[in-house]
Amino acid sequence: MQDSPRSADPGSAPVEYFPPDRPWEEHEGHLHLVGMRCSACGTCAFPARELCSLCGATEGLTRQRLAPRGRLYTFSEVHAGPKEFPSPYVIGFVDLEDGVRVVARLQGSAASLSPDQWVEVTTGTVRVRVNGTQVVSYQFRGALA
Ligand SMILES: [Zn+2]
After folding, report:
1. Is residue 110 helix, strand or coil?
2. 17 — phi, psi (to 5°)?
3. How far is the CA of 21 from the centre of ligand 1 (A)?
4. Looking at the whole model, is its pTM more than 0.85?
5. What is the pLDDT of residue 13?
6. Other C-beta atoms within 10 Å of 141: how many?
7. CA 143 / ligand 1 centre spacing (Å)
8. What residues contact 71, with CB distance under 8 A and at least 6 apart?
């Protein structure tokens, strides 16, 4: 092929991840976000934190693989994003099946989404740096009920 290294082929573009520690993992065919669970009060959260936002515990916080899907609580389409963030894009709140509410990008247009619909975790490019580097992060996409 005669393509330059900056061709549109995402397989050849430089990639970085946000956040860099990639708090997601594949398990039994589904992608899951990895957050935390407080052993003192049982609260789960994403992203993982240094302390429990409910009881304030700083010890006994363990890694927790979260539910792979949830319902779309609410969302909004952004038409004036920061530099390097191709717009429009959709951002919203998802209530995972295990009760954790996550803020994330959603794939597709706002017109293709509706409140309370099922969505599942996936990954995708959220930002393209001026040097062509694609920044990949967790996202949600529509899922069958
Ligand atoms: Zn707690």
Report:
1. helix
2. -120, 145
3. 23
4. yes
5. 78
6. 17
7. 31
8. 94, 95, 116, 117, 118, 119
